[in-house]
Design goal:
3 domains, elongated, C8orf32 fold, 4-stranded antiparallel β-sheet, alpha+beta, 23 helices, single chain, 740 residues
Length: 740
């Protein structure tokens, strides 16, 4: 009994080996699913760049497989992707068009900058170059993985799992259900892949088509129902895309979480307070004394630092205890907002512990919501003269606060330039504070869009050039510049004073919003302790202490006294310049035009490279054919293979020449003469070397394509099969059959 199944299987495998239609369909599905990331990244620039890179990598894999270089697909595709990413994102680092070590460093820095954005930002994030690079590189790599998977016998189901993972990823990030309108076309394209694998040649009629129709209809129904019946994935969403569960939690670096919460779109009232202090206080939650060069962080030994509070204050310094009553509303945190330096607390029901470094307070049960408590803090009021006279010597227990390694030169140079007229640490601190508050812009979006968000040394160096950022950048920069001048410094995190809302029992009530989250700088002065300086423009008030007065000419301020900074609104100036700064940054960092140009150049190179290599090989062989017929015969065989004729390693010269005789228009006399030369070279005692075979070979090469159609000749010129290895068996190249 004759069995059709093996023949059908061979036909299917031939189509699979061709694979260019499969790869095209899979890439189209991937690009469709890329649209789902619109909930993760703003704008369209990232989509254009990412889609172009994915299409380019797909074109590389298809081209290599069509010319038979299957083993080189993954490495060559990776190299092509790296080249395009280099041309788009770090073009200035290239040597002509080739990557250098600076290219690798530049790409590495961009990827490193994407880390804080991914871990801190709330989706949708700005389409900064670092984020677009990560997306483009990821989707390019996904194309390569899909190509490798589709070469497997059961690769289509695995490809479906990969596509499903891409589909649900934006939902995992944002916490919202993915759109069914994206799932449907991607599912249809996957069914096309599945249909190509399950098709049987010669099948026809309703009985044969019914299973495919049922499978397709069932798949489409599932595509429509899946997003509806799928469980809510918000509970497993990552921190990127939604506010973290705690503003400040145990084990969390507060300065990292600060960036996330500042960019929340729905500010809420987190606490209210009344105070006996003359000025509304900053409420500290954490002190960050240790600087790693990449970030500020809390100390590992909170109880190992020097004593603070009243023990640090000299007898001649004016200081008094004042109470502040705080009511926590919508704040989930293990850290308790208190004025600095707080020396006692009453009313915390959950219990608390005070840490020596920074006198910060932590609740025992880890949640301060609903608490109302009263603090006693010291209102320290030294005069400017006392601060100028403070001993500036760095004692051993202060050395940790001036540690600074491998700082970019611009940081120290700028600090010395700004403070060049100052002769003491207090005036240096005022000069630094004034430098930031008068010459920089407040923006929460510009650092993200321009890829310098964070608080490390490289970020600070970039911030000093860009002159736009938010409190993390200002406080970090001032603290690092102070250390470059041997002034002990650290960063404090908490809340700016907030806004007066009314009266309660004769005291002003202040309301603090979630967008009053803030970071500021603290500098140490012997006999006074840690003094707050706020370099962020438009937030809180700048620090300045009473200057000595003279009655001369009725002027109450002594000559040479620094001009006090103007009073500023206590609210963050987010609405004033964020939109303009963010828009300008996005325009400056657009990658879509460069991506289009780079991909166009790369596609041209990909399209022309196989034919160019083939022409170079032909010229080389014909030059060698002046002395031996063997290179000429190899060229004739490869040209025949490019035109679709059967060629294998098992061929003899006469057997191959016999099959070629069926080609209309072929110069048979030239074939016979060339065959005679080849057989003489291979089998005679004297050999055939030293005889030119160029003329006969050229005649055969000119007449061999005569019977081929225009499409076949074009395919032979652009995508020559002979670049790949020859088949062992006598059969046409595997990709001759159309992959449907």
């Amino acid at each position: 009994m004759l069995r059709a199944e093996p023949a059908a299987t061979r036909a299917v495998q031939t189509r699979i080996r061709g694979g260019w239609v499969e790869m095209t369909v899979a890439t189209a599905a991937l690009v469709v699913l890329l649209l789902g990331f619109r909930s993760v990244v703003e704008g369209a620039d990232w989509f254009v760049s990412t889609a172009l890179v994915a299409v380019l990598v797909s074109a590389v894999t298809i081209t290599l497989r069509l010319v038979g270089l299957r083993r080189a697909v993954a490495p060559v595709a990776l190299v092509a992707e790296l080249l395009v990413l280099s041309w788009v994102f770090v073009p200035s680092s290239l040597l002509v068009l080739l990557p250098t070590l600076d290219t690798a460093r530049g790409l590495g820095e961009l990827i490193e900058r994407a880390g804080p954005i991914i871990s801190e930002e709330q989706a949708p994030v700005a389409p900064s170059s670092s984020i677009v690079l990560v997306l483009a590189a990821s989707f390019g790599a996904l194309v390569i993985v899909l190509d490798l998977v589709l070469r497997l016998r059961r690769g289509v189901p695995i490809a479906g799992v990969l596509l499903l993972a891409v589909f649900i990823t934006p939902g995992l990030i944002t916490g919202s259900s993915p759109s069914g309108w994206l799932f449907l076309p991607a599912a249809v394209l996957w069914l096309v892949l599945l249909r190509g694998r399950t098709a049987v040649t010669g099948a026809s009629g309703p009985a044969r088509q019914a299973p495919a129709i049922v499978l397709g209809a069932g798949g489409l129904v599932a595509a429509l129902l899946f997003p509806v019946v799928a469980p809510d994935i918000a509970s497993v969403a990552s921190a990127w895309g939604k506010p973290p569960p705690q503003v400040f939690g145990r084990g969390i670096n507060p300065i990292v979480e600060l960036g996330t919460n500042l960019r929340r779109n729905n500010p809420v009232t987190v606490l209210t307070y009344t105070t006996e202090l003359d000025d509304p206080p900053y409420l500290k939650v954490a002190t960050l004394p240790d600087f790693t060069g990449k970030t500020w962080r809390p100390s590992d030994d909170y109880n190992g630092g020097r004593f603070e509070g009243s023990l640090a204050i000299g007898d001649d310094i004016d200081a008094d205890r004042k109470s502040t009553r705080v009511s926590i509303l919508q704040l989930r945190s293990s850290l308790v907002p208190v004025p600095y330096p707080t020396v006692s607390i009453r009313g915390l029901d959950s219990g608390y512990q005070v840490e020596r470094s920074g006198l910060t307070v932590t609740t025992i049960d880890g949640d301060v919501r609903g608490e109302t408590y009263t603090t006693q803090s010291i209102d320290v009021l030294p005069t400017a003269a006392q601060l100028r006279a403070s001993n500036s010597r760095v004692t051993p227990d202060l050395e940790r606060y001036v540690e600074l390694e491998d700082a970019p030169a611009v940081i120290g140079e700028t600090a010395r330039e700004v403070t060049s007229d100052a002769t003491n640490n207090y005036d240096r601190a005022l000069a630094l504070q004034s430098y930031f508050r008068s010459g920089f812009d407040y923006s929460e979006t510009a650092p993200v869009a321009d890829d310098y968000d964070g608080n490390g040394l490289s970020v600070i160096a970039e911030f000093l050039t860009r002159k736009a950022g938010y409190c993390v950048h200002f406080s970090s920069a001032m603290a690092v510049m102070a250390r470059s001048l041997d002034i002990p410094s650290r960063v404090a995190v908490g809340y700016a004073p907030g806004n007066a809302e009314g009266l309660e029992n004769g005291r002003r009530v202040y309301s603090v919003q979630s967008d009053n989250l803030h970071a500021w700088t603290e500098l140490y002065f012997a006999g006074v302790g840690w003094v707050k300086f706020d370099p962020t423009p438009g937030v809180g008030e700048s620090t300045a202490f009473a200057e000595p007065t003279t009655p001369t000419n009725g002027d109450p301020v002594a000559e040479g006294t620094p001009e006090p900074a103007p009073e500023e609104n206590a609210r963050n100036p987010r609405s004033q310049d964020d939109t303009a700064a963010g828009t300008e940054a996005e325009q400056d960092t657009s990658t879509a035009p460069r991506s289009a140009a780079a991909v166009l150049v790369a596609m041209l190179a990909i399209g022309l490279a196989p034919g160019l290599v083939r022409r170079i090989r032909r010229g080389w062989r014909l030059r060698r054919a002046k002395h031996s017929p063997e290179p000429a015969w190899r060229e004739v065989e490869d040209t025949a293979r490019d035109l679709g004729l059967a060629v294998s390693h098992a061929d003899t010269a006469r057997g191959f020449a016999f099959r070629m005789r069926d080609q209309p228009g072929l110069d048979l006399d030239a074939v016979d003469r060339l065959l005679t030369l080849v057989e003489r070279a291979r089998y005679s005692r004297t050999g055939g070397t030293g005889v030119s075979a160029v003329a006969d070979a050229q005649r055969v090469l000119d007449t061999l394509p005569a019977a081929a159609g225009r499409r076949t000749r074009l395919r032979a010129a652009l995508l020559p099969r002979s670049l790949g290895p020859r088949p062992l068996a006598l059969e046409p190249a595997a990709d001759v059959a159309p992959a449907t």
